[in-house]
Amino acid sequence: MTGVLSHGLASRRDVGAFLSRLVRLDAATVVRLKPVGADRVQLWAPLPWGVLVGRVVAGAAPGDATVSAAALFEEVARGGAVLPPRRDADWRWPLPPVAGSRVVESVPGAEIVRVAAAAAGTLRTASREGVGGRAVGQRALRDALLDHVAIVVTDDGDTSVDVSQRLVQAVVRMGFLGPAEAAETASIDVRTSGRWIGLAAPYGVAWLPPAQQFTLKPTATRTFGR
Q: Among candidates 221, 194, 226, 189, which has minimal Cα distance to 209?
């Protein structure tokens, strides 16, 4: 039909995996399709706790376009090729700068799984028993855990980079570590780009913008160095 654009996404499985988890976390969110060369597309989306997640998939998007994540998921799931109505004005987040992106250190996938599970256990216990004998709201507990720095890495110049639970939860809950048996042996890169901090996993990347970075450090913080 005249005027109807194709989303151009070639891998229904990869796109569906990204969008299904995204919609589960926030059914009303949007996703941005940004071409990367002639045959790849970077999917970008914000998570409810202030992290941007991205995954590169096969395809050729019709330019830089933002659409409803739920609508695109439904279209892809049924095997359709039509790009949902564009919502470019609803994209309000900067993207991490391309220039200057670098790997600071690599962290074992098993460590990412461990700190994510520890946070989930702490949330369950605190929700059930309170903190110091006092009841604490679920939202307050969640935010406090997300703000904590779970891992600290250092580069060759002894500059430290704090990896908060916001990033850890993003890569785990978006399935970026892959199947459970592979996640334990995966290598996760801690990246920086300007003042942005990122975790790059086998199936996607999560970036924390400067405005969402915190410095609360629990006593159990694990430190990695070269």
A: 194
Among 48, 26, 161, CA closest to 107: 161
Q: Whole-angstrom Cα distance, residue 32 to residue 86?
A: 10
User: How many angstroms separate the CA atoms of 66 and 82, rounded?
Assistant: 13
3-state DSSP of 10-62: CCHHHHHHHHHHHHHHCCCCEEEEEEECCCEEEEEEECCCCCEEEEEEEECCC
DSSP structure class, residue 222: E
- The 10 Å CB-count burial string (b at 16+, else e) for 94-107 is ebbeeeeeeebbeb
pTM: 0.86
State how far the alpha carbon of 32 is from the alpha carbons of 4, 94, 140, 146, 223, in Å.
Answer: 18, 12, 30, 25, 34
Q: What is the pLDDT of residue 122?
A: 66
Q: Are 165 and 146 in contact (CB under 8 A)?
A: yes
- Residue-wise pLDDT for 105-146, tens only, equals 999 999 999 988 887 776 665 455 444 445 455 566 667 778
SS (H, E, C) 141-166: HHHHHHHEEEEEEECCCCCEEEEEHH
171-190 mean pLDDT: 92
CA distance 149 to 217: 5
